[in-house]
Design goal:
With 159 residues, the chain is an alpha+beta fold. It has a domain of 110 residues: Gcn5-related N-acetyltransferase (GNAT) (Aminopeptidase, 3-Layer(aba) Sandwich). Strands 1-2-3-4-5-7-6 form a seven-stranded mixed beta sheet. A hairpin with a 6-residue loop joins β6 and β7. The longest helix is centred in the middle third of the chain and has 15 residues.
Length: 159
């Protein structure tokens, strides 16, 4: 895979299609694996990280590309005044280089145009600092599939 060297501002955002499902799944799996989870833990998440045609048909999924390569994507459940982000991933070569922030800014503008006031999402502790920088507030925590770990349910204002 040849990773693009283009800056984050050059990303193109467009709806994902069924033809993108395998690549979207690979991005999600690589991104989750980046945090050093065991093979057993990754197997627990495999179903949640696999993007299917059914998932694409029941969610709004927007991919971010550079030179026809998927850099990241987000998936939204029913778009209402409070909307849930079901997936939010940046591929590992693009992490901590501004691509996630540019994609978030696009997401925020996309939601504003649809009169969404805030979003909720379930976060792995590894994603907390990124979303805290966007104004996330922890609403609750739930037990993680990995023993002695927790996931956080957060709310982020869109304004």
């Amino acid at each position: 895979m040849n990773y693009s060297k283009l800056p984050p501002e050059d990303m193109i955002f467009e709806p994902a299609t069924a033809e993108d499902a395998d690549e979207l799944s690979a991005v999600a799996i690589r991104s989750k694996r980046h945090w050093g989870y065991s093979k057993e833990a990754m197997e627990l998440w495999n179903q949640n990280l696999t993007i299917t045609e059914d998932f694409l048909n029941s969610h709004t999924v927007i991919k971010a590309t550079l030179e026809d390569e998927i850099v990241g994507f987000f998936a939204l459940e029913d778009i209402q005044s409070v909307t849930r982000i079901a997936q939010y991933w940046i591929d590992t070569p693009y992490m901590r280089k501004g691509y996630g922030t540019v994609m978030y800014n696009y997401l925020r503008d996309y939601l504003r145009q649809r009169n969404v006031e805030k979003v909720t999402l379930v976060l792995d502790p590894n994603g907390m600092s990124f979303f805290e920088n966007k104004g996330a507030k922890i609403l609750d925590k739930i037990e993680h599939k990995v023993k002695n770990k927790f996931l956080y349910i957060v709310e982020v204002p869109v304004n």
